């Protein structure tokens, strides 16, 4: 039982780790990379999705990448 609790805690810790992300946007053949810094994946996705929505208005798109 103790090992199971430790394993679950380890997985939870790793899942909540912050990592470095970039949001790469391509509009009209020009690609830009926005450094999002260390964030949780959900937060980085939300930020990049906002940029993607704006880029789509101009015929482009954005993707989230881990550094």
Features:
single chain, alpha+beta, 3-stranded antiparallel β-sheet, 2 helices, 37% strand, 67 residues
Helix content: 40-55%
Low-confidence stretches: none
Summarize model confidence as the mean pLDDT: 87
Beta-strand segment tally: 3
Radius of gyration: 16 Å
Q: Number of DSSP helices?
A: 2
The share of residues in extended strands comes to 35-45%
Instruction: Give the overall silhouette.
Output: elongated
Largest sheet: 3 strands, antiparallel
A few lines on this structure:
Helix content is 46%, strand content 37%. With 67 residues, it is an alpha+beta fold.
Describe the structure.
With 67 residues, the chain is α+β, with helices and mostly antiparallel strands. The chain has one domain. 46% of the residues lie in helices and 37% in strands. The chain is built from two helices and three strands, in the order αββαβ. It has a three-stranded antiparallel sheet, covered by helices on one side. The longest helix is centred in the C-terminal third of the chain and has 17 residues, at 41-57. The protein is elongated and about 55 Å long. The termini are far apart.
């Amino acid at each position: 039982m103790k090992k199971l609790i430790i394993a679950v805690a380890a997985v939870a810790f790793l899942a909540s780790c912050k990592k470095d992300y970039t949001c790469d946007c391509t509009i009209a053949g020009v690609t830009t990379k926005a450094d999002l810094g260390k964030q949780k994946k959900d937060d980085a996705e939300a930020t990049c999705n906002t940029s993607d929505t704006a880029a789509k208005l101009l015929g482009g798109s954005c993707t989230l990448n881990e550094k």
